[in-house]
Amino acid sequence: QLQLEESGPRLVKPSETLSLTCSVSGGSISNKDHCWGWVRQPPGKGLEWIGSVCFTTSAFYNPSLKSRVIISVDTSKSQFSLKLTSLTASDTSIYYCTKEEQNPRGCFQRWGQGTLVTVSS
Amino acid sequence: DIQMTQSPSTMSASVGDTVIITCRASQSVNRWLAWYQQKPGKGPDLLIYRASNLESGVPSRFSGGGSETEFTLTIRGLQPDDFATYYCQQYRTNPWTFGQGTKVETK
Fold first, then answer.
1. A105 touches chain B (CB under 8 A)
2. What secondary structure letter does DSSP report for A46?
3. Which residues pair with B51 in a beta bridge?
4. Could you give the 3-state DSSP secondary structure of residue B81?
5. Nearest Cα residue to A6 out of A75, A81, A66
6. Test the A interface: residue of B30, B38, B85, B96 with most A CBs within 10 Å
7. Cα A105 to Cα A52, A56, B4, distances in angstroms
8. Do B46 and A108 touch (CB under 8 A)?
9. Calpha distance A84→A97 (Å, rounded)
10. Measured on CA atoms in the order B60, B7, B51, B47, is the torsion positive or negative?
11. For residue B87, what are the β-bridge partners?
12. Does residue A56 surpass a pLDDT of 80?
């Protein structure tokens, strides 16, 4: 069964860039029917979709974050990544990587366990 | 953005109970609605997609209904493993948005 696992720093300073990686196992990251993305959850709060990318269509990003986000896929490593720039304390969240079908997009069939990222000096 | 509102925010229930959670959308999402279960320290698990389709491996005591702006998640015969937080989510319009969650607690 396909599994996702997030990795990256636990503490990042304000104004810096967050880089997270999601490793995919138990399935092919190159499957053209699948899209790969990220959702976040401030501690004790609700879920916010960040964005996702597919092989055959353009990336979709939440308009509220679009100017600060890049999601990319590295098929050679079976990984995909999130870069979020210009961090503030409000970006402190648990970050989950996700897998969805390309058609229709937006229904998250698999989630990683999540990684807590704290933005603080 | 489409706002998703769940009710109640918290509910107390006992094993064997039937639980109904409601989700309302600020505009029509047709049937592009999913339900997830989340337990502490874990990522959510997909339960229901397209409003009423049961994800593979999910017990049949879970069911979903509704369309347009009104949806329900029903758990018939609540089991100990079902005490968790449940989220609805629309995927009709970018950005995909979630409800605030409903926590099902032990009575």
1. yes
2. -
3. none
4. helix
5. A81
6. B96
7. 9, 12, 18
8. yes
9. 14
10. negative
11. B36
12. no
- The closest alpha carbon to B74, from B13, B3, B4, B25, belongs to B13
Measured between CB atoms, does A38 come within 8 Å of chain B? Answer: no
Q: A95 in helix, strand or coil?
A: strand
Q: How confident is the model at residue B12 (pLDDT cuts 50, 70, 90)?
A: very high
In DSSP terms, A69 is beta-bridged to A84
User: What DSSP letter does each residue of A65-114 carry, written as one string?
Assistant: TGGGEEEEEEGGGTEEEEEE-S--GGG-EEEEEEEEESSSTT-EEEE---
Q: What angle do CA A61, A65, A68 make, to 5 degrees?
A: 100
pLDDT digits (tens, 9 = 90+) for B30-61: 999 999 999 999 999 999 999 999 999 999 99
Do residues A23 and A79 touch, judged by C-beta distance below 8 A?
yes
Contacts of A59 (CB under 8 A, 6+ apart): A51, A52, A53, A71
Q: Which residues in chain B have Cβ-Cβ distances shorter than 8 Å to A108?
A: 34, 36, 44, 46, 89
Beta carbons within 8 Å of B97's beta carbon, 6+ residues apart: A49, B1, B2, B3, B4, B89, B90
Q: Which two tokens stand for residue A73?
A: 């896929």
Number of other residues whose CB lies within 10 A of the CB of residue B2: 18
What is the distance in angstroms between the CA of the first residue and the CA of the last residue of chain A? Answer: 39
Return the sign of the alpha-carbon dihedral for residues A17, A9, A91, A47. Answer: positive
Largest CA distance in chain A: 41
